[in-house]
Amino acid sequence: MEISGILNALITVVGSPTHVLLLLIAVPVGMFFGAIPGLGGKLGIVLAIPFVFGMDPLAGAIFLVAMHSVVHTGGAIPSILFGVPGTGPDAATVVDGLPMTRSGQAGRAIGAALGASGVGGVIGGLFLLAIMPLLRPVVLAFGPAEFFLLALFGITFIAMLAGDSLIKGLLVGLFGLMMAFVNLDPQTGAQRYTFDFLFLWDGIDIITAVLAIFAIPEMIALGVAGGSIAEVRQRASYGLQGVLKGIRDVFRHWGLTIRTSVIGAFIGMIPGLGGEAASWICYGHAVQSSKTPDRFGKGAVEGVIAPETANNSKEGGSLLPTLFFGVPGSSGMAILLGAFVMLGIQPGPSLALTGMDIVWTLIWALMIANILAVLMFFAVAPSFSYLSYVRGSLLIPFVFTLTYLGSYLSHRAWENLVLLTVLGTLGYLMKRHHWPRPPFVIGLILGPIVEDSFHKATALWGPLFILRPGAMALMALIIISFGIYFWRARNKKLKKAQNAV
Amino acid sequence: MPFRILLNGPVFTALMMFVVFATMSLIALSFPDKARLMPLIVGIPGTILALVQLFIELRSTLSQTAENADLVPETVEAERQMFTWMFLFFFGILGFGFIYAAPLLVFGFLWFGKEESLKIGLVGGAATWGILYGLFQRGFQIPLFDGLLLEWLVG
After folding, report:
1. From CA A419, how far away is CA A403, in angstroms rounded?
2. How far apart are CA A230 and CA A249, in angstroms?
3. Residue of A220, A393, A435 with shortest CB distance to B116
4. What's the angle, vertex CA B70, arms to CA B67 and CA B71, rounded to 5?
5. Window B:12-31, CB contacts with A under 8 Å
6. Chain B residues with CB-CB distance to A178 below 8 A
């Protein structure tokens, strides 16, 4: 039954010319956003939203998942060639990628990154395929009490990890939750914070909020910084022979490749942990498990393979909490979650009951996109590095236009343009003064789940719903994660004091 | 310490958060019982946390000297320019819609704002028009916003 569903999903992806065409478009677009430092996958998704608007939900979701899954494949290129990470999680690749370029092995490093990304993405997808049947009963066993606490866990966890201040992270998460209460109250029908504006009755548009908090501040910051996005001075050249050698390295170190792929997928499953943790943890694992750890940092190819496999495999893992629990695995997944809702795909436990065909299809799309990324790269290999020279000033007005367009199209309401500008200004203030922005999006998305689950849980079990075993386990998780945060902060402070002495 | 330096960016952001949480919590008191429950559960801790953050930012500002304050004239000027462009895009699109305003604004940004060549400005503007009109309006058959002012003028 399950096997036939999985195979049918594969046929849905590869048997439909529309889906194949969308994959062929999504992969280079995703790599483009990854390869230009400063843009990144989140911006890529928010800007793609106007283009998938009105599309068949499954086709739109395939496009977005495929695009999102190959962002880090593109992001490795400027990390290796110029030491400028295309995206945050690609920073770990710089440590050994740049020394390889400096020693004339740019092609080998690029090939290793490309092969590792492809294999990592496929293993991440396979991991998800394997774990899904085991996890489905767990998802279905979750009740409103567990969902309420799981949503709170997601918000507090990302608040802790998204920035250097816990208070700021929590405040932004709570602010996102508050914004989720702008609507007609689902319990009483009373207007809450709508000030008689009709367009606010259904709540603040998630797409507009995401565009405002991410796209607008990034473009203002890009304009303020000026010049080209990547501060690169000279072009590093490489040939296809080197690229092929790098790909062979991935299979030569097959043990490391598989291990870091699985670790990455596991980390991706933990809500909010994000890609940076995955890539650095796997880099650390590569150093620890090496017989010659002193080579790392000086151009060891394993130092490129480990973070790159993790970067792509964690996307498979993070699809799991996003699709089944409605709790995004990362800030990129939070945006993807908003886009799914806009397309009419409602993530959550109901997907495990009636929407498994969509889940399987998206996993296949993720795996095929990763394979396509490797194949497509060969066609444009030597000229791909030119992307890092794209001048920011050329992109800003187009991004502004697409941002306003995406916001308008999401509800066809001009009032959203006003909301976009106001929230965009706020988003820039947050960026400028180091307030983490991902908790806002997660709070806004999880707000309705939090409220609905809370009312259902209190109606079923009264205020003592928190004493249910599942709820208590999740509360313990929240308390433990707070404990770990404070313990780490204390250690950091002590270390700083010792260094000062 | 002068008020201008005391109310710097970080303090202003924290103050704004405090005002937002406090105001939303107060407004929530006017909602029916069930409707105000969650806004208050979130709003009250939010107000307290924002107050704590405001205190942290004020203490950090007071410990800084006036020279260290977060005011770099070049950055402020660049920010002013970028916000001007953002508002131009907003008012332009709100007034005259996507098809007319966006290509002109893209051209204006590239040619006047960033001093790119006239050719790049024209190509940028034409590409924007091509995507908006050709791809969205004609290709995807998605009617785009015409602009409030243009709707009022043309009817």
Report:
1. 12
2. 28
3. A393
4. 80
5. 12-13, 16-17, 20-21, 24, 27-28, 31
6. 20-21, 24, 39, 42-43, 46
**Paired tokens of A134:** 């085991």
What pLDDT, on the 0 to 100 scale, is given for residue B5? 59
Q: Choose from A185, A390, A453 for mutation: most chain B CBs within 10 A.
A: A185
What amino acid occupies position B30? S
Give the distance from residue B79's alpha carbon to the nearest chain A alpha carbon, in angstroms. Answer: 6
Contact of B83 with chain A, judged by CB distance below 8 Å, is answered with yes
Please list the pLDDT of chain A residue by residue as tens digits (501 residues).
578 888 888 888 888 899 999 999 999 888 888 777 666 667 777 778 777 877 888 999 999 999 988 888 887 877 787 776 666 677 788 888 888 887 888 888 888 988 998 999 899 888 888 887 777 777 777 888 888 888 888 788 777 766 678 899 899 999 999 999 999 988 888 899 998 888 888 889 887 888 888 888 888 988 887 754 444 445 556 677 888 888 899 999 999 999 999 988 888 887 656 556 788 888 888 888 888 888 888 888 899 999 889 888 888 888 888 888 777 766 677 778 878 877 888 887 777 777 888 888 998 999 999 999 888 887 776 666 666 566 767 788 988 998 898 888 877 889 999 999 999 999 999 988 888 887 887 788 888 888 988 999 999 888 888 888 888 988 998 888 888 888 877 888 888 888 877
- The continuous run of DSSP H or E covering B86 comes out as helix B73-108
Q: Does B137 touch chain A (CB under 8 A)?
A: no
Radius of gyration of chain B (CA): 23
Query: What's the angle, vertex CA A144, arms to CA A143 and CA A149, rounded to 5?
Result: 105
Pairwise CA distance, residues B127 & B133, whole Å:
10
- The answer to whether the Cβ–Cβ distance between A393 and B42 falls below 8 Å is no
Q: How many DSSP H helices and E strands does chain A contain?
A: 22, 2
Contacts across the A-B interface (CB distance below 8 Å): 155
Amino acid making up residue A190: A
How far does chain B reach from its first CA to its final CA, in angstroms?
Answer: 56
Q: What is the DSSP secondary structure assignment for residue A87, as one 8-state letter? A: S
Q: d(Cα A479, Cα B130) in Å, to the nearest integer?
A: 54
- Token code pair at residue A126: 């396979």
Q: What is the ipTM of this complex?
A: 0.91
Sign of CA pseudo-dihedral A107, A377, A70, A164: positive
CA-angle at A289, arms to A283 and A293, nearest 5°: 75
Residues in B closer than 8 angstroms to A424, CB to CB, are 86
Contact present, A286 and A333 (Cβ < 8 Å): no
Residues 6 or more apart whose CB falls under 8 angstroms from that of A102 comprise: A299
Q: Which residues of A touch B27 (CB under 8 A)?
A: 193
CA distance A76 to A83: 10
Strands (E), B17-153: none
Nearest residue to B89 (alpha-carbon basis) of A52, A339, A219: A219
For Cα atoms A299, A303, A309, give the angle at the middle one, nearest 5 degrees.
140
Distance from CA of A33 to the nearest CA of B (A): 19
